[in-house]
Amino acid sequence: MKILQVIFYSVSSIVGILFIIGVFTSGLHHNARQAAGSGRGGVASGQPQNTDSSAIAFLGEVPGPDRIQMYAYDGAATDRSCMEQWSKRGVVDVEMENYCINEEREGYARLTETARKIGGFSWGKPLFDTQSAKWTKRGVVDYNEVNYILSRDYDAYLNLKYAYTHEGINIPAFVQAMDIADRSGAGISMIEFSYKRIIGKD
Asked: Which residues cross the membrane (predicted)?
């Protein structure tokens, strides 16, 4: 009988210890998710923090001073990149190389203009920095690609802002759309897309 009691108490102790470990581990996991934070710069967040008030602040933001410091055009790096892209077996397609260089120059000019438009918004610089880093390969910025994404996000923001001021926005649905964009690490164009899907306007 004493042996059975000892076995019973031992098993009970082991179960108790395992339960405490499980609770402790669960608490750590929950705290880690909360610490993940959220952002609007095209960076995925572990725990969306968007609320009705943050959505209204986002839609009603009045741009302030330009926060984006535009980097200089790197002509040497761009020329080298275009030459490498249009070289085959040691022969350079000069016509396509020149086309590539001109496109990047024009892309830089367009990007400079887009950066000026979004630089006054709180979300402008985070988006600019994120996309610039994403589209920099071997030290060369793809100006056209960065501008394409940022101008698309800016256009989406203007659409949403217009709807907010002229048509009315379903704020709870908009908060859901912001959370979807945050979780996917996407920009404002994803907010617009998700919002339209949620309200059945796609």
From this structure: 6-24
Dist CA 175 CA 181 (whole Å):
10
Domain range holding 75?
Answer: 52-199
Indicate the number of domains in the chain.
1
The lowest-confidence range among 3-17, 100-114, 165-179 is 3-17
List the one residue out of 20, 18, 22, 25 whose CA is nearest residue 10: 18
- Helix residue ranges, H only, 61-142: 75-85, 94-118, 124-134
Instruction: Extract the tokens encoding 28.
Output: 């750590």
The sign of the torsion formed by the CA atoms of 158, 164, 169, 174 equals positive
What is this structure's pTM?
A: 0.73
List Cβ neighbours of 120 (8 Å cut-off, separation of 6 or more). 63, 64, 65, 66, 67
